[in-house]
Amino acid sequence: LPAGERARAPGVNPLTASPNTETSRADTDDPLVLRANAWCGAEVVGALNDAASLEWGERPEPRPRATRDDRAPLALDLSQWRDPRVGWGLVVPDRDDCPPADKAIGLDLCEPLQTLLRRRAPAPVLRWRADLPEGRLRRYAPDGSAADLNLRGARGTGALAVPYYLLIAAGPTQIPWRVQYRLQTEAFVGRLDLERNALARYVDALLSDWPRSRVRRSRPLIWATDHGHPDITRLMRKTLAEQLAREFADDREHEFEMDGGVLIEREATGARLIQALIERDPAFVMTSSHGSTSPLDDTAAMRATLGLPVDQARQRLALGELARWDAYGTIWYAHACCSAGADGASNFSDIVAARSTLRETLDAIARVGAAQAPLPSALLGGARPARAFVGHVEPTFDWTLRDPITGQRNTESLIDAFYGGLHRTGSWPIGLALHAHFHAISGLLLDHADALQQIAASIPGARERARRTKLIALDRLALVLLGDPTVRLGDSG
After folding, report:
1. What is the full DSSP assignment across 160-174?
2. Whether the model pTM is above 0.85
3. What span, in angstroms and rounded, lies between the C-alpha atoms of 469 and 482?
4. Which end of the chain has the smaller Cβ count within 10 Å, N or C?
5. Angle formed at CA 331 by CA 330 and CA 333, multiple of 5 degrees
6. Residue 483 forms beta bridges with which residues?
């Protein structure tokens, strides 16, 4: 919901009130320093005051075409994915060793995916190939013909159409993260990167809507570390975690029980998080912290703990201890570096100086390769799978949380997604709830294209503007949904 339409009860809620609740530009040090929410044993920062950083900002990104408002016309309710004008479809890698007619109906896919297709029919099977132009997916027809479709044409499940809801059933080595980045600007996209048995468990839970789940919609859990200014966790706490906690606490219907549901700073330990998960059975969890990216010189060790939340005592969340909690049916958002995974090449390497913790961390993450992080793998692939996980590929940055020029908070789309869309608006599907966050990327890339034109015209400040808008756009793109995009918030009643 737009910020102006959200009702807030008057007064300050004691659960979230603190002397550091509001943001200010005083929290920003040097505007030529970039901070990330990774943790390699030290604060991860990098200087921006060199020519290579400005040149990075001047490399053009694809200029987006003007897009229609995906929420129109009013007669089309995008929350109803079974409507053939909306639709759900599967995205899988293409292959050349299977007849096109079989690929049209997914006969080459594993049994869990075939079961999912049968139960969700009519559901198109769309294929990704490395030789396709960006933003296109191949759809085979039963007669053996094929068409390479884009998302700006017909939508839904009809012939030569692409559904609004898309589930990528492949890991990032098979279908790269960049494909998900591109698709989610115009569709509601999730991903399942699970081995066959884990995939079967998730599909069974999805098709039966997590029966006998104990999760409680009325008991969300917010957990946020704060290592003090100028560490990025202070900004994350103030612009995102506390703002979201206040929405729940000040809900005009008083539907949310927040006593014990907001763990910040000294309470943000791994032990307290696990205890609260067990006690509250939350349908929604939000964690805000650094994400583990250490040790930088041991790729295998980094991969094993990549993106795990780092608590107030600077200890990684123990996955073994987390297994004490039943995650069945939960949706978890982890605002942390690499909480969703890593890629084989960073989009941000050239923006900071080579001899900085940020550049060294980006290079070390790239050596991990394209991979899903262990936390979502455990949550979605366990014996009792979670509904969905939302997280980041690569680090996230302070500029994306708050405008470095004006100090304006830029987290409203995430707050609206998780409070407004997921909890208040008749419980939208998670893919739809997140769409406003991605819809804003078109404007950022248009701003970047404008800045490139201003550079050519020698307008002062244009190079800095190009760098800033490109970084924020790419940072937003790297937020990904893991799990099916049609899942809604659960509640045991």
Report:
1. T-B-SEEEE-S-TTT
2. yes
3. 26
4. C
5. 140
6. 388
